[in-house]
Amino acid sequence: MKQLILGAVAAGTTALTPLVASAQTEVQFWHAFTGRLGELVAAQVEEFNASQSDYNVVASHKGNYSETLNAGIAAFRAGEQPHILMVFEVGTATMMGAKGAIKPVYEVMAESGAEFDPDAYIGAVKGYYTTTEGEMLSLPFNSSTPVLWVNRDALEGAGIDPDTDLSTWQNVEGVLDDLKEAGHSCPLVTAWQSWIHLENFSAYHDVPFATRDNGFAGLDTELAFNSEAQVAHISKMGEWAQDGKFVYTGRRNEGGANFRAGDCALFTESSAGYAGIKSEAEFDFDVRPLPYWEGVGNAPQNTIIGGASLWVMEGHEAEEYKGVGEFLAFLSSTPIQAQWHQDTGYLPITAAAGEATREAGFYDENPGTDVAVKQMTANEPTANSKGLRLGSFDQIRGIIDEELEAVWAGDKSAQEAMDSAVERGNQLLRRFEQANR
Amino acid sequence: MEKRVTFRGWMLPLLLIAPQVFISAVFFFYPAGQAVWQSLFIPDPFGLSTQFVGMGNFEYLFGDRHYRASFYTTALFSILVTLASMIPALFLAVLADRLIKGSGVYRTLLIWPYAVAPAVAGVLWLFMFNTRVGVVSWYLGQLGYDWNHVLNGSEAMGLVVVASAWGRISYNFLFFFAALQAVPRSVIEAAAIDGARFWRRFFTIVLPLLSPTTFFLLVVNVVYSFFETFGVIHTITSGGPQQATTILVYKVYSDGFVGQDLGSSSAQSVVLLLVVGLLTVLQFKFIEKRVHY
C-alpha cells in the first residue's frame, strides 16, 4: 500500500512538472555533441537554467554535424524548428543563403537587449561567421585550428633532437628523411586532409582558396586551389606518400589512432585533439604550430578554424528570442568560455576568456595548449585567411578527398588532381548559386 | 491446372486488395510521385524558393562523367554481390541438405548473420580489415601482402562486396534449403540407380528444379544490392577511395543529405527507379522463360 501511495505521488509530481515549466519560456537547442562534449554542453545548459528563472533551455542531441543540420532543415520545412541550431563551419554558406529561415545573431542580440559586444570576440574566430560588413550571423561555439603534434620519443629513437625546429615544411622534410632512414614506418600522418593541407594551407600562406574573397564577397565564387603554392605542397606530400614518409589512413581523423598508439612520429591534426592525445599517449608529446613553406606567399599568416557555430532560426516569439539572447550572452561570458576552452581544448571565442585562462596559469601547467590561440591570432586576418564561405562545401570536401587519394596512390599528378577537383567543385558551386539566387 | 476463385460481386475483391493498394499508395506511389515532381526543380534546402528547370537536373547528371561512371560501378558491384551471396548459399544448402544428423544446428547457425544489420556488418568487416588493427590485414601483412583498402580501389570494392554478401548468404541459404527439401526424392533415387553421380544429379536434376527459387533470389538480390547495401558502403568506404565504391544509391544520399541538393538527388532517385524497374522487367521477360515451375 505504501508503495502504491509513493507511486501515485511520483506520478503526480511528474505530471505536474510541465505545468511548473510552462511558467518559463522554453528555448530549444539542437546540438551534435556526444560523450564528454555532450556532458559539458549539458552542464552549461544546466548552469544557465539554474542561474535565472525566466527561461528554460532544452538541449537535444540530433546526431553528428551533418545529421543535425539535416534535422534542422527538415524541422524548418515542417514548421517545427528549434530556436538554436548547431551547424558546422562548412554549412555556413548554406545557412547564410537561407534568408527567411535564420535570424542573424547581431539582430537577436540587439532586439533582446542582452549584453553583446562584437569586438570582444577573437577576430579569426568570429570572422568565419561575420559578413564583410562586420555583422555577426552566428555565434561561434566550438572552434579549433590545425597544429603539428610531435611524438618526441619517436624522434629521439631515430636519433633526432626532439627540440629541433619544425616550424617550416623545409625543416620537417629533413626530419622525415631522417626518420625514414632510421627505418621508421610512419613518419607523418594527417587528419582532415582537405581542411589542413588545402584550406588552412591557403590561409596560412595568404593565397586564395577561392575567388571573391574565398566566397565572402559573393556566390559567383570559383575555386582557386589549383595554383602554384597548393600544387607544390600537394605534389611534395604525394612524393612523401610514394616514399613511405607520409602515410594515408583515411578521410577523417583515422590517423589519430595511429599517432596515439605511438606508431607515427608527426601528426597534423586539430588542436582539439588535445584531450584524446593527452589521455591515451604513452609517450612524450609536443604541440607545435602548423609548419609552413618558408618563402611561399606571406606565410605564416594565420590559420583558420574548424568546428561549429550556433544559428538562431526564424519563426519564434519575441519573448523566446529574448531567452535565446540571454543564453548566447551567457555562453560568451568569460568564466563559461574560459572553462570550455580549458575542458575541451577548443579555442576561446573571446579574448577575455583566453586572458583569464592565462592568468589562471592553465597554459603553464599544460604547455602547448596556447599554440593554437597564438597561431590564429598572430596576424590580422586577410581576405585569404578570414575563412571560407562556399556552398555545398561538405560535398566539395568529398571531391577534394577523392582527388587527393588519387595523388597519394600515385594515379594522378598534383596538378591534374587539383585541376579536376576545382572543375568538379565549381560545378557544385554553380548549382548552389542557382539554388540560392 | 490453374486454380481460380471467382467472386460474385465487386465489393469483396476490392476490399481484399484495399490494404495492399493503400500501403503501396502511401509508401510507394506518393513518394515516387514526389520524387518525379521534385526532379524538375532546383529548390533551396529550406524550401524557401524553388525554380523550375524541366529536364535540367537530368542534363546536369548525365553531363557528369562521374555519374556515368557510377553506373559501371553499380553494375559491377551488384553482379559481384549477387554471385557472392547466391553461390556460397547454394553450396551450403546442398551440404546441409545431405546431412542426416545435426542439420538443425547448422541451419540455425547459418541463418544468424542475417540478423546483423548492414551497418553493423560493415563495422565488423572494417575492424577485421582495418589497415592498422585489423586481424585479417595483419595476417595478410605477415604473408607479405600489403592490404590497403583506403587507397586501393579494387580492395575496397572487394571488401564492400564481401561485407554486403555475407549477411545475405543466410537469407539465400534459407530459400535454397527449403527448395532442396521439396525436390522429390524418387527422381533423384531413380537417377542414382541409373548411375548418375552426385554432381551430375545436381546439375541435371536439382538445379533445374530449383530454378523458380533461383530466379526469385536473383531478382531480390539485385534489388538488395542496389538499395540496401548503403549502410555497408557508408560505414566502410564512404564511396572511396576516389570513386571506386560510389554506387548510384550512395550518390543519391551524398547529393541529398551531404550536399542538400534535393533537385539532383530526386532526379537520381527517378533514374534509379527506372533502372531497377527495367532490370526487373528484363529479368522476367528473358530469364523467366528458362524457369520451370
Automatic annotation (TrEMBL), chain A:
Its main location: periplasm. It is found in: Periplasm. Keywords: Signal, Transport. It comes from the Bacteria. One of its GO terms (cellular component) is periplasmic space. Coiled coil: none annotated. Residues 1-23 form the signal peptide. Part of the ABC transporter complex UgpBAEC involved in sn-glycerol-3-phosphate (G3P) import. Binds G3P. Belongs to the bacterial solute-binding protein 1 family. The complex is composed of two ATP-binding proteins (UgpC), two transmembrane proteins (UgpA and UgpE) and a solute-binding protein (UgpB). This is sn-glycerol-3-phosphate-binding periplasmic protein UgpB. It comes from Aquicoccus porphyridii.
Automatic annotation (TrEMBL), chain B:
GO terms for cellular component: plasma membrane. Keywords: Cell inner membrane, Cell membrane, Membrane, Transmembrane, Transmembrane helix, Transport. Coiled coil: none annotated. The gene is ugpA. Part of the ABC transporter complex UgpBAEC involved in sn-glycerol-3-phosphate (G3P) import. Probably responsible for the translocation of the substrate across the membrane. The keyword Aminoacyl-tRNA synthetase does not apply. It is found in: Cell inner membrane; Cell membrane. It holds the Pfam family BPD_transp_1. The keyword RNA-binding does not apply. The lineage of its organism: Bacteria, Pseudomonadati, Pseudomonadota, Alphaproteobacteria, Rhodobacterales. The chain crosses the membrane at residues 12-30, 71-96, 108-128, 156-180, 201-227, 267-287. This is sn-glycerol-3-phosphate transport system permease protein UgpA. Residues 71-283 form the ABC transmembrane type-1 domain. It is a multi-pass membrane protein. The complex is composed of two ATP-binding proteins (UgpC), two transmembrane proteins (UgpA and UgpE) and a solute-binding protein (UgpB). GO terms for biological process: transmembrane transport. NCBIfam families: PRK10561.1 (NF007852). Belongs to the binding-protein-dependent transport system permease family.
